[in-house]
Design brief:
Shape: globular
Oligomer: single chain
Order of helices and strands: HHEEEEHEEHEEHHEEEEEEHEEEH
Strand content: 25-35%
Number of helices: 8
Helix content: 25-40%
Distance between the termini: 32 Å
Length: about 290
């Protein structure tokens, strides 16, 4: 029988987590990475590093940086240090030098692969991780990224791009609430079970949420991409649902190496009426153990 933890143990764990966060000087991590991060749910500090320098197309659609070219790194406090996870968007010639520098600095590589097909020019995604001093890991990440053309720093402020989409209808079809970001309508949908990596809890904000992005194409149409975070038992039912509804499955792989339960990431691509796409994605989401509703 399951027994809830005594209150003093819950308070002790909460106090320890707060102490971990308090011991980290996040301004030094900001300085090491070259830009300020943002606090996410679960005590996660995250830095977005969109590849605004790249002009990448798929099937004639030029991808917005926030749609499919969003490098990011995030730290979560852990025993006075931090756990790192991230995903770096790299061109073919950037992969090897960046990897070499990260390895030299002790940052771990957990995956290298495509997320989309027919990207022109080709781009790859390098998933990174680590545990230790967040400032030192940030310095290593900055040194590695310096061997790519990834823009660092705060972009110049400008007017927010308009979204030519019926966002309310998309929200309704997906039974979720999206967020506008850089001309893209984004959804982050948490799974209901706890996921750990090497024994440490990995919250949705650290890369375990289902991600769905809509990029407007005009006339109510959109391109969609993202990734479903799946248990092995869900993979083929979700894959069949997507394919039955003309949503292309473009990759299936892991992002972590010590996760429990083991999860797989299924990336997808399609262009069509945005609300129709949202309804088809909802059918696939209903086959997963994920949160429903805003």
């Amino acid at each position: 029988m399951f027994r809830s933890l005594p209150l003093f143990l819950v308070l002790l764990a909460t106090t320890a987590t707060c102490a971990d966060a308090a011991e980290i000087d996040w301004t030094k991590v900001d300085q090491a990475l070259g830009k300020p991060g943002a606090i996410q749910p679960g005590g996660v500090h995250k830095w977005g590093l969109p590849r605004t320098d790249l002009k990448i197309t798929v099937d004639g659609v030029q991808l917005k940086p926030t749609f499919a070219l969003g490098s990011w790194v995030a730290f979560m406090p852990m025993d006075g240090n931090a756990m790192l996870m991230g995903d770096l968007v790299l061109t073919e010639d950037e992969v090897s030098p960046v990897m070499k520098r990260l390895i030299e600095g002790g940052v771990e590589i957990s995956a290298i692969h495509n997320h989309l097909l027919r990207t022109s020019p080709a781009v790859f995604y390098m998933h990174v991780g680590g545990r230790g001093d967040p400032v030192k890991m940030a310095e290593t990440l900055r040194a590695g990224l310096a061997l790519s053309h990834t823009p660092i720093g705060i972009p110049a402020a400008g007017p927010a791009p308009t979204l030519d989409l019926d966002m309310a209808a998309i929200d309704s079809a997906l039974s979720a609430k999206g967020t506008a970001n850089g001309g893209v309508y984004q959804f982050s949908i948490a799974r209901l079970e706890a996921i750990t990596d090497a024994g440490m809890a990995v919250p949705p904000s650290l890369g375990t949420a289902i991600a769905i992005n809509f990029q407007p194409l005009g006339g109510g149409k959109a391109a969609i991409t993202g990734d479903f975070v799946l248990m092995g038992s869900e993979v083929n039912s979700v894959l069949k649902s997507l394919r039955d509804n003309n949503i292309e499955v473009t990759a299936l792989h892991s992002h972590m190496v010590n996760d429990s339960p083991h999860v797989l990431f299924m990336h997808f691509w399609a262009t069509d009426d945005a609300v129709v796409l949202a309804k088809h994605l909802r059918m696939a989401l209903d086959l997963t153990n994920s949160k429903r509703g805003p």
